[in-house]
Amino acid sequence: MENVLVIGGNRYFGRQLVTRLRDSGVRVSVLNRGSAPPPPGVTPLIADRSDEAALTAALAGRDFDAVIDQVCYTPRQAASAVRAFAGRTGRYLMTSTIEVYDTGAQQPISPPPSPLAESAVDPERWPVQLELPWEETEFVEASYGEGKRQAEAVFTRSGAFPFVSVRLGHVLGAADFTGRLAHYTDRIDAGRPVLVHPEDLPSSYTHDTEAAAFLAWAAGREFTGPVNLASHGELTATDLCELIAAGRPYRTAAPEPGQQASPFSFDRYYGMDNSRAQQLGHPLTHTRDWLPGLLAATRGQELPA
User: Fold this and answer.
1) What is the dihedral of CA 283, 284, 286, 292, to 10 degrees?
2) Residue 302 pLDDT
3) pLDDT at 111 over 70
4) pLDDT digits over 266-290, tens only?
5) DSSP per residue over 90-121, as a string?
6) Other CB atoms closer than 10 Å to residue 18's CB: what's the count?
7) 0.85 cut: is pTM over it?
8) What is the pairing mode between strands 225-229 and 163-168?
9) Crossing angle for the helix pair 75-85 and 144-158, nearest 10 degrees?
10) What's the burial of 254, exposed, middle or buried (CB within 10 Å: 0-12/13-18/19+)?
11) Which of 30, 37, 230, 262 could bond 204 through an S-S bridge, CB–CB 3.0 to 4.6 Å?
């Protein structure tokens, strides 16, 4: 693998992915709207990936060993990428999400459910609805999991190139721009309750560095299909509170009617089966090995020796 294109890659673990590939000796190009320059030694390609004509023009005369698509959110974006990259790449990876498993189907609470395997959502059979208003930002944001499911389905069924969807557990990192961990630290520091569903069901997580490492590794392999990427060790919202509080008192409360629960508090089970990633040969970490260091980093603290 000598030549890789990353679509997106401006921030969070996408930027880590770009520098990791570059530092391994791969020739890296980054395609985005050009709002920020890429790292040194990386070739910029400027286009809005939702504008198929601009995307095709930016790719003129270029081909790639692999493409890693960090910012595909809709089946329309997937369909235009299929047309633009057919014959231009030997492999296509889409960064997908644990949210593909939130299909609205009721999941049993008792007895405890089993971790969600990739087969729980099959892109070969998932319906694609290109007629939905995928150009509307509010609709796309409200339909995040569905957009990812349908995008996976478009790529999988196209047959245009070998395709992989990497379904990431909830990604945590010091550069997280979503404010989800800050929600916990701010409330605990202020003595305010963290709003937790009464069931307090667990979810799977991965570190931003682990996400970047897996994507870079997977780009050079030959497997296809969906693969779950998550660290060992599911966590509930209360587990997060305990780790963040680090022995200090904290409070939780159930959301009142009309209130939204805190981030990472779920009314359904979100544990992912990560056995396929392991069987493919990629080592996985444990949440409780890296989360304390991450929490210290977000507060500018040092861990005790």
Assistant:
1) 90
2) 45
3) no
4) 888 889 999 999 999 999 999 999 9
5) S-EEEEEEGGGG--S-----SSPPPPBPGGGS
6) 27
7) yes
8) parallel
9) 30
10) middle
11) 230
